[in-house]
UniProtKB/TrEMBL annotation:
Domain of life: Bacteria
Record-linked NCBIfam families: PRK10917.1-3, PRK10917.2-2, PRK10917.2-4, recG
Protein name, per record: ATP-dependent DNA helicase RecG
Protein function: Plays a critical role in recombination and DNA repair. Helps process Holliday junction intermediates to mature products by catalyzing branch migration. Has replication fork regression activity, unwinds stalled or blocked replication forks to make a HJ that can be resolved. Has a DNA unwinding activity characteristic of a DNA helicase with 3'-5' polarity.
Region of interest (Disordered), residue spans: 102-129
Signal peptide residue numbers: none
Biological process, per Gene Ontology: DNA recombination; DNA repair
Length: 842
């Protein structure tokens, strides 16, 4: 895998996996465990070469063993994962040391035994010799930023070894290891004095503890504790969401952290509950054993709480950070002072000092603001740099923005474009006249009319003598685009073909031949477009619908079928602005923020099981008026089979028991494409009045006569997905309904469904979705690549993100390569990779 061992990358992969809670992170191409397994599958040349000072046989064994252990990683429980990673980190760290030693002048002093290397390093040198004020004693004694932790006097090799388990090797690592939270011991109160609404700290003893999987939700783990001080008792719970906490091993390990009798500090918001006062998901910290005096670093002040790992206790990190703190004197701020002033940002060294040990909550806020700004800023800087560099590429495909064909097309269109559509068409036509390949994303809510906008771009391509390809994620959708294009292009006498997995061989060959000669100007299709040995004669435009359903790889492959073709991508999943800037920050984005006229609001109602007969009455009335209905069942993640059964069973029930007088169709992912086609065609042709389906209908299916969307177990879907499903109705002029059936009485579920009752704005819905479920979930599983921020929140920090984007735009405008901003350039290099999270696994 790795020719030259890339220790840094390996360490980073290990660090990120640990930071993410040992979830076997998914990278672009590999899972974490696969990446590690592949890496250890091949011993790097430097370790296998004959060097008498290294016992290479043991390396070979060790690498083989690690490869096997990582192959088995997915089967390990949390503790075993943690320990394997800790052990691997130490080993890699040693190898790294060894390599570094092998190249430098210290080569001769290398130890023989790899598992216990003696590492000598030069004395720390005092940095920043140019500045005259540096001669202050404190600065003279301060450790250097890049100094190894083992060399910092107050830390030393033994503690440095422990800190290495957290991925912390240098002073810089430690300074930038921001605390997860703070506990304010100044707000310490007695249990009997608790007042609802206040954030407080109590110091008390564990009276009882239990940790278990929620009986109602397998993915939720609950830790329940009772604490006591001499004034009273309090009970509280902490919640851990995610399958990884469900293991007994993990639950037991939590209980071991807080055995009965332990003295704890618990800090959090006081709430009134059914059982009296409680703390809301508090931060916990184990203090000394009962009877001992409480540590002075913690009492009476705001203390940082760090993410810890096996064998590394809170005070170890705190003391190490305190020891590293004087090094902030050497920290140069990569942001020029003018920029800091403009955006009202604290200086970096103060921000770092305050984020760890804030004197008060105002300075904590100010330092957080600065550091959040940095997280956003460097990501935007990287994205904008990439965007600018992409624009340095040239394309031959320069299109004429107007001409007979486009005129003709406007004439045959049965409607006028909306203002928003026209605006986006203009954006696109502008792009197409440049000799720089277009890279534009159209974002528009379901039904906003993205297809016609893309078709205008296709017509412009044809008119200019180029071919165009339109790729969709499913056969159903590709087929639908194809039909629409045929209906329009027939009138213009332009041939169009469809290529999918089920296209017959003879047809396939014919299509290939016509593409190569250039006879065929437009091809619509699925992944088959990139899988087949398809050669275009002169591909000038690539359109990708529902782009988030394709990987970067697949998009690139289609692009490679032409020479720097223009690329237009579309998405009907509106996402919050913050998320859009984070993941599409390097694209030009156009919004279609207006629906075609005449659309009526879709009346959305959340119904409980007891109201089911009302729902069926409504459905009957609609069918009596010639309308049609979708009934959608959730995708049960754990078991596709279960999923299938629920759709099949529901179909049976509706057909036999509830609506025997109507025809009920069935559509699910396990059907052959021919059967799927048949089901959709029958529905489209009104042979079936009701279509029972899994979420396959989510994407793009367009049957304007359907007026009711009934969604079973609506509480199991994300809001954005529900919104997508709802978009299947309300496509004609008739009034439409969306019925959200749920059996959950939980206030959270009800509140979420309320959002849909109240709003039909996809952006608002996705914003709320992000608030409820977090940014990673809004896009669903298929898209990873949401940057991995330490402090920044896409929900809370929109204002800072916008400023950071502005600042980055200014900088890139003036100096794309950051040649005159050397410190910033360095910092960007350091941070960008890290921010992109799992992306580095590939
Ligand atoms: P989406 O943006 O969800 O892909 P479509 O492109 O499928 O939406 O368009 C939805 C429907 O609206 C289609 O039937 C389309 O023909 C129609 N449509 C698009 N633009 C207009 C318009 N300006 N006026 C009226 N109907 C339109
Ligand atoms: Mg569409």
């Amino acid at each position: 895998m790795i020719e030259q061992p890339d220790w840094l990358r390996l360490q980073k992969a290990l660090t990120i996996e640990a930071e993410q809670g040992f979830t076997d992170l998914m990278g672009r191409q590999y899972r974490f465990s696969e990446f590690l397994c592949l890496t250890f599958g091949k011993l790097p040349a430097s370790l296998s070469s004959d060097r008498d000072d290294i016992p290479q046989q043991s390396h070979r064994d060790r690498w083989q063993q690690l490869a096997q252990e990582f192959a088995n990683y997915p089967n390990l429980d949390m503790e075993a994962r943690q320990s394997l990673i800790a052990q691997t980190r130490r080993y890699i760290y040693q190898l790294q040391q060894l390599e570094a030693g092998g190249e430098g002048e210290r080569g001769g002093e290398r130890g023989n035994n790899i598992s216990n290397p003696t590492i000598k390093t030069p004395q720390s040198t005092i940095q920043n010799p140019k500045s005259p004020i540096v001669s202050e004693v404190s600065k003279l004694l301060a450790p250097g930023i890049d100094q190894k932790l083992s060399e910092v006097a107050e830390i030393g090799p033994r503690r440095a070894d422990k800190l290495a388990r957290l991925g912390l090797y240098t002073v810089r690592d430690l300074l930038f290891y921001y605390p997860r939270d703070h506990i304010d011991y100044a707000k310490q109160v007695q249990i009997s004095e608790l007042q609802a609404g206040e954030t407080v700290t109590i110091v008390a003893t564990v009276k009882s503890i239990s940790c278990f999987t929620s009986p109602k939700n397998q993915k939720l783990t609950i830790l329940e504790m009772q604490l006591r001080d001499n004034s009273g008792r309090i009970k509280f719970s902490r919640f851990y969401a995610g399958a990884r906490y469900a293991s007994r091993g993990w639950q037991e390990s939590v209980k071991r952290l807080y055995p009965v009798g332990t003295m704890l500090a618990a800090c959090g918001l006081v709430k009134e509950s059914k059982y009296g006062k409680t703390l809301d998901n508090p931060e916990l910290e184990v203090l000394a054993q009962p009877g001992d005096a409480i540590e002075s670093l913690t009492i009476g002040r705001v203390v940082p709480v760090y993410a810890l790992t096996e064998g590394v206790v809170a005070n170890l990190v705190r003391e190490a950070v305190a020891a590293a703190m004087p090094a902030t004197h050497h920290l140069k701020d990569p942001l020029p002072s003018g920029l800091r002033q403009k955006y009202n940002l604290m200086e970096l060294k103060d921000a770092i000092a305050n984020i760890h040990f804030p004197p008060d909550s105002d300075s904590l806020q100010a330092s957080r603001r600065r550091l959040v700004f940095d997280e956003f800023f460097y990501l935007q800087l990287g994205l904008l740099q990439r965007q600018q560099r992409a624009k340095q590429v040239q394309t031959q495909a320069i299109f004429a923005p107007s001409g007979e064909l486009i005129e003709e097309f406007y004439k045959i269109l049965p409607f006028e474009l909306t203002g928003a559509q026209q605006r986006v068409v203009n954006d696109i036509l502008d792009d197409l006249q440049k000799n720089v390949p277009m890279n534009r994303l159209i974002q528009g809510d379901v039904g906003s009319g993205k297809t016609v906008v893309a078709v205008i771009a296709i017509v412009a391509a044809i008119q200019s003598g180029y071919q165009a390809a339109l790729m969709a994620p499913t056969e159903v959708l590709a087929e639908q685009h194809y039909r629409k294009l045929v209906s329009w292009f027939n009138l213009l006498h332009l041939p169009v073909e469809l290529l999918t997995g089920s296209t017959r061989v003879v047809k396939r060959r014919q299509i290939h031949a016509q593409l190569e000669t250039g006879e065929l100007p437009v091809l619509v299709g699925t992944h088959a477009l990139i899988q087949d040995p398809v050669n275009f004669n002169r591909l000038g435009l690539v359109v990708i619908d529902e782009q988030h359903r394709f990987g970067v790889e697949q998009r690139a492959k289609l692009q490679q079928k032409g020479e720097q073709p223009h690329v237009l991508t579309m998405t009907a999943t509106p996402i919050p602005r913050t998320l859009a800037l984070t993941i599409h920050g390097d694209l030009d984005v156009s919004q279609i923020d207006e629906l075609p006229p005449g659309r009526q609001a879709i009346q959305t109602t959340a119904l409980m099981a007891s109201q089911r007969s009302d729902a069926y009455d409504l459905m009957r009335r609609e069918i009596a008026q010639g309308r049609q209905i979708y009934v959608v069942l959730p995708l049960v993640e754990e078991s596709e089979k279960l999923d299938l059964r629920s759709a099949v069973e529901e179909h049976q029930k509706l057909q036999d028991a509830i609506f025997p007088e109507f025809q009920v169709g069935l559509l699910h992912g396990r059907m052959s494409s021919a059967d799927k086609d048949r089901a959709i065609t029958k529905f489209r042709d009104k042979e079936t009045q009701i279509l029972v389906s899994t979420t396959v209908v989510e994407v793009g299916v367009d049957v304007p006569n359907a007026t009711v969307m009934m969604i079973e177990h609506a509480e199991r879907f994300g809001l954005s997905q529900l919104h997508q499903l709802r978009g299947r109705v309300g496509r004609g002029a008739a009034k439409s309904y969306c019925l959200l059936m749920s059996s959950s009485k939980s206030p959270d579920a009800q509140q979420r469904l309320k959002v849909l009752e109240q709003s039909q704005d996809g952006f608002f819905v996705s914003e709320m979705d992000m608030r409820f479920r977090g940014p990673g979930e809004v896009l669903g599983k298929r898209q990873s690549g949401v940057a991995d921020f330490t402090l920044a929140s896409l929900v809370e920090d929109e204002e800072i993100l916008i400023l950071a984007r502005q600042a980055a735009e200014k900088v890139i405008e003036i100096d794309v390569n950051l040649d005159r901003l050397y410190l910033m350039k360095q910092e960007l290099k350091l941070r960008y990779e890290r921010l992109m999270g799992g992306a580095i696994l590939t």
